[in-house]
Amino acid sequence: MSKEKVLHDIQHWERQWKDYRANDFEMMYDQWMNKSFQDMSNRTKKKFFHQIDQWLFHTHAYIQGTAFQNEARERILTSGRIFQSDIDHIEDMKNLTIDQLTYLAHQQVAKGKLYSFAQGGLTGTGGLLLLGIDFPAMMILNVRAVQLIGLTFGYEVNHPYEMMLSLKIFHAATLPKRLQKEAWDDLKRELEHHTSPFIYEGEEELTDETWLEQPMKHSMKSLFILMFRKKLIQGLPLVSMAIGATLNYQLTRQVTDFALRFYQYRYLVEQGELD
User: What CA–CA distance (Å, rounded) separates 272 from 275?
Assistant: First the structure.
């Protein structure tokens, strides 16, 4: 894999938005959501989404402080030393080639998909406790997946700029596909104003009403699981387990694909391969 091949893959991946057309259901949803928030005061809306943003910030910080994440960081460094023995810090990962970094990032992607698939399958058993924690658990798993891809490419995601950037990547990746192109372009522009990993000077607001489609999809998934949880096959609710596992897997695939393409693009920019 060459830098030209990676660039071609990114460009091919970007074409998904050019060919995408919103269906009637999505248009109706947009109208309904806009109408629902029209009657809400700006202050109430701002407070509501501020609470969601704060939850994401705290989630990011919590993950960074866990022993599980520290172990993952060490595994990334150990994997990097397979290609270059003098890698001691996360920033040293940037010395690897795009082929090597992509290979290592794919390992993180595969693990993230596996965790989400397993978590979705457990949720599909229909237990009310598991259903109740499914959405926050999926958000945590996917925020962590973005962090691990960023670490693999050599970025310390506990620095202010990298923290905000990783959360913006997560936010953009979980948006409806019809809105992702604008968010992708915003992330590209974000790189143009990057000065220091210790300073973030951009907007700190992440979520708004456009992001709420993701929780709505989650609610629909939970409803389907509840509908099919009593349809047992050999004593197991296999249909509801398949629904949970498949939909969680698809969300993580969407998030990790987005994050991988962005960090590949960032590598090419910083290597001077792109104007």
Answer: 7
Q: What would the mean pLDDT of 222-235 be, rounded to a whole number?
A: 82
pLDDT tens column, 50-81: 899 999 999 998 898 888 888 999 999 999 99
Which of 60, 242, 264 lies closest to 150 in space, CA to CA? 264
- Contact criterion met (CB below 8 Å) for 116 and 252: yes
Q: How far apart are CA 143 and CA 256, in angstroms?
A: 10
Give the position of tokens 């050019």. 18
Q: Rounded to whole angstroms, how far apart are CA atoms 91 and 88?
A: 8
φ/ψ (deg, to 5) at 233: -125, 115
Return d(Cα 51, Cα 158) in angstroms, integer: 21
In this model, does residue 275 exceed pLDDT 70? no
Q: Please, which residues have CB within 8 angstroms of residue 168's CB and are 6 or more apart in sequence?
A: 183, 186, 187, 190, 206
